[in-house]
Automatic annotation (TrEMBL):
Organism, scientific name: Laspinema palackyanum D2a
The keyword Ribosomal protein is assigned to this record: no
Protein name in UniProt: Fe2+-dependent dioxygenase
Listed Pfam families: 2OG-FeII_Oxy_3, PKHD_C
UniProt entry tagged with the keyword Acetylation: no
Cofactor dependency: L-ascorbate; Fe(2+)
SUPFAM superfamilies reported in the protein's UniProt record: Clavaminate synthase-like
Chain sites annotated for binding Fe cation: 96, 98, 156
Amino acid sequence: MILCIEQVLTPEQLDEIHRILKEGEFVEGKLTAGRYAKTVKDNYQLKADTEDAKKVRKMVHNALLQNPLFKASVRPQKIRPILFSRYEPGMSYGWHTDNAIMGDGELVRSDVSLTLFLSDPDTYEGGELVIDTSIGEQSFKLPAGSMIVYPSTFLHQVTEVTQGIRFAAVTWVQSLVRDVQQREILFELDTVRKSIFEQYGKTVEFDLLCKTHANLLRQWVEL
Ligand SMILES: O=C(O)CCC(=O)C(=O)O
Ligand SMILES: [Fe+2]
């Protein structure tokens, strides 16, 4: 399940993040890449251990947790610290897979990868996120403040930025429900149940859907 979620950040939050990214100190992105991904990763990342970096990480982390679509589709259990990347002309991140296990203290299994686009697409050329899905390569370049969430199982790349600057926030999530198909079934049941409730109220059908949803979640959840 690949999902684009719009307006994860307000224009005010985007302005504040841009203010901090403009002044922030950036380091080589290779520092946080796995052994093989390092060889194709060419970007900068906001230095992680400053007050400003903490502030923007928290802002995006909270925005994720408050987003109903993100919560219902991803079912986050653990979220890795958010990385803020900057691609200048000539920079790209070639084909790679994200590490399955991340972190050195608390380990996180990457079930879902996400990119929150921070730059207006009109301000840079290139810089598409391309995902190699079962129906071929799919290319994404979303409006600032919108995000794409996709299973970490896919090969993907960021194409070369040829003009302007691409800022993005990326992170990885361990889901309460490891299997992508099970997550999708729960997400769709939840969507239908919400719509039935809005249209007809708490009917017998609604109650049955709630029961099925809860019982499937009980079977599939990993705590
Ligand atoms: O910036 C992006 O859209 C994706 C970056 C990425 O694939 C990664 O950091 O592993
Ligand atoms: Fe990646």
